Amino acid sequence: MYKTGIKKKMTALALSLFSSSVLAAYPEQPITLVVPFPAGSGTDAVGRIFASEMSSRLGQPVIVENKPGANATIAAQHVAKSKPDGYTILISTNTPLSAAPWLMKNVSYDVVNDFTAVARGGNLPFILITHASKPYQTVKDLVEYAKANPGKLSYASGNSTGIVAGATLGNTADIDILHVPYKGTPQAITDLIGGQVDFMFTDLASGIPFVKSNKVKALAVSTAKPSALLPDLPSMEAAGINNFDINSWNGFLGPAGLSDEVVQTLNKTINEIVEDKEIKQKLANLGFDAFSGTQQEFADFVKQQYVLWGDLIKAAGIEQK
Known about the structure:
Oligomer: single chain
Number of strands: 11
């Protein structure tokens, strides 16, 4: 009887310890937030705000790690192959998950099966900018200039949104323009300001500071409808380019196999961040439209965007097979 009682207590203690281990609150150590673009890019600026807020809410440091290159596929591949424990998270845009698989050959990950969608972050609207000294003041002026000077205008890109937007403009407006790719947006804008390229599509966070300092001028937002963040800037449709609606989305993903606990914790935290009016305004000041939703909504959205961007890229004639 005595030995049986001890055995029961020891079993109960073992079960208690096992239960405590299984139910240990996530996170228990620092989280790495992988940014697929260089420091100074729009996604980097947005990612650092999210990282700071996640740190304070989760009680663990969230460390930003920039892994730019290869249309953001280097970062995406790194996260896809990471241990699915919730300590390596990708802050992604449409570049590695919606566009790169169509723009590049042999992308080494599966958009749907190699990631766990966690939460939407929002949208990073793009604008069409040119050097301040260029003679075109509107999109119509730019198109007319390009038609009068075929093959002489060049556009820079620092990510897939810039690539696809430029190619779509060329295809839709029937103009012959030269694409000059860059590893990241900061380098592309530097050369635009320096006069090495003529125009580019860039995110608000990267472009607006230079618009405000009159180093570049903004001609339109890259969407069919005006942006609430820049209500005075015409949409591409209003500027005379029909069927042009390109936007950059932002969201958080981990490797395939993340536990429900990790997903729920991160999703709840990200939703809290975007619902905080002060943080939402801080992000808006960067040109970022912050909002989120459920994990399932984001997972469905990622699948839909993959198909949508495939259609855009095929229509522009830049798909790599």
